[in-house]
Every structure is written in C-alpha cells, then in structure tokens.
Design a protein that fits this description.
The protein is of the alpha/beta class. 41% of the residues lie in helices and 13% in strands. It has a nine-stranded parallel sheet, with helices on one face. β6, α9 and β7 form a beta-alpha-beta unit. The longest helix is centred in the middle third of the chain and has 17 residues. It starts with a helix and ends in a 7-residue tail after the last helix. Bound molecules: iron/sulfur cluster.
Length: 321
Amino acid sequence: MIDLQKLTEEVCAGKALTYDEGVELTQHLDKEALYEAADTIRTHFCGNNMDLCSITNAKSGRCSQNCKWCSQSAHHTTNIEEYDLIDKERAVNEALESAKAGVHRHSLVTSGKSVSNKTLHSLLEIYKEIREKSSINLCASMGLVTKEQLQKLKNAGISHYHCNLETAPSYFPNVCTTHTIQDKIDVILTAQSLDMRVCSGGIIGMGETMEQRVELACTLRDLHIMSIPINILTPIEGTPLYNAHTLSEEEILTTIAVFRFINPKANLRFAGGRLQIKKFQHKALHAGINSALTGNYLTTVGSNTAQDIKDFTASGFTIAR
Ligand code: SF4
C-alpha cells in the first residue's frame, strides 16, 4: 500500500504524481487518512482563502451539440427556459449582485458549440457596462471560440476563459460525438497563448471509471489549469444520463482528494451538483476543495451566496475581498 504520509510530504515538496500513483491512491483503504492528507496539501499550497465565482446563463438552450448530460442540447427534450440572448439589464444586475455579495469573478456563459460575432458583440456590451459599474473580475464561457474572438474578449478586460474538458479523453466520445475533446484542448491552448487564465474541469458521475477521473485530473494538470471545477452530475429528465448511477459520498470525496494530490496548487472548485453533497460539504471542504461556483448554475438551482460564505467561514475558510 502507498505510504500516504511520505507521498503527501513529497507532493508538498513539489513531486508530480504519476497516473499510476493516482490510481493507487483511489484504492487507498483508509479514506479518512486520504482526505486528511489532501487537506494538508491544500493548506500547504493554497492556505485558507476561498475563491468565489458566479455565472449568468446569457444564452440558453437550442444547442446543436449532443452532450449527453446537458439540458440545453436540442437533441434532448427537457423543460428549460430557452432564449437567444439575455436582457442586458438582467445580466448586468446579476453581475453587480455577485460583486456586492463578495464574489471575486463573474462569467457570462452561452449555450452552443461556439458564439457568433454578432452575439459576441452584444455580450461585449454587457461586459462593458459591468466594468463601468464594478471592479469584479470577468470570465467568459462561450464554447469553441476562435483566436480572434478570444482576443476581443481579452481586449475588453476579460481575464479568464472557461472551457471544461468535461471528462477523461478516453471517455469523452461516450458522452458527446458532435465535437471532440481535442477541440476543447485547442481552445484552452489558444486562450493560454493570449495570456488568458483558463478555468477547466469536468463532471463526475457520467458513467466514467475512477481511473478515468484520474486521467482527467492528469490531463488538466498537464494543461497547467489552475482553476478546476468539479461538477457532480445532476441527472436532468429528458437527457440520456437521467438514470445515471448516483455516486456515493466515498466516491465523490475520493475523487476530490485525488484531484488535489494531482493538482496541488490549483483552485479545486465546487460547482454543479453541490446540493447533492450539502450534508457532507464540510468534509469535502477538508478533502481538497478551496473554491466555489456560488449562486445558481446554468439550468439548475445552486446556492445562496450569503449562506455559502457563512458555511465556508464556519468550515475555517476566509473570503478575501
Ligand atoms: S454542454 Fe454546451 S455544447 Fe454541449 S449541448 Fe450543452 S450547451 Fe451545447
């Protein structure tokens, strides 16, 4: 069995875990010791500060892509609100409310494989007004955008680009066939070439194996991703994954802890599906998590930011302004 204490010390000293070591860690029998070790690594590299971000669903539904988990795909019949572009005032107000609540960064998120230049122009107008009224950091999540579009976002002051890998490269074709994980990696590399910071993570509970979660964590590490949302699948009626097997508390906490071992310095972020882990949230916060997407998610209800801040503070974190 792996020597957990030795490995923890080595990671704190700068060692990069191999894929095989990651897989071995997932099989560690003393789970409580595994979570505690991940917490030690988080404290060592990230301290107790909690990074918070929020999102606005700026363009909802009618997507041409067939991602099996997604309620916004036109390939599935779901009961979501659909609109082409959010009302500007509503989008600006959501960002300002997040800023007021103490959130560090806000993102406009659009459905679709990518975004048209016309839509991007309207979105840039929204960002402009947010920037004029607030100093909140800005992020964008608009699919497989071009280098020119990324440059426009960067020029407008958007420092972060979000593009989830969603799952391991070896599993991606099982959950989406209308684009590839390489398409996503290309966008990530382009954003990084423009000096944008990239946020990229995935969804667990889509039928992938624990080994494939390790593969995802290693792929993100190799891409130098420093903000990694870990979503837990919320099965939505009408999507092909509606009847997906529900992950156990142990599977979720083990995944978080191993992600921390493999990505010791990254912001590991609570994201979608958090309501499912409400009862063991404190444990997850001490198994490697140090950041959160707060407020509502794209098509599912999320959390109340004020309550989040209260809960995170009670779990020993600070929320820097
Ligand atoms: S995840 Fe994005 S690309 Fe895939 S179906 Fe949903 S909105 Fe479309």
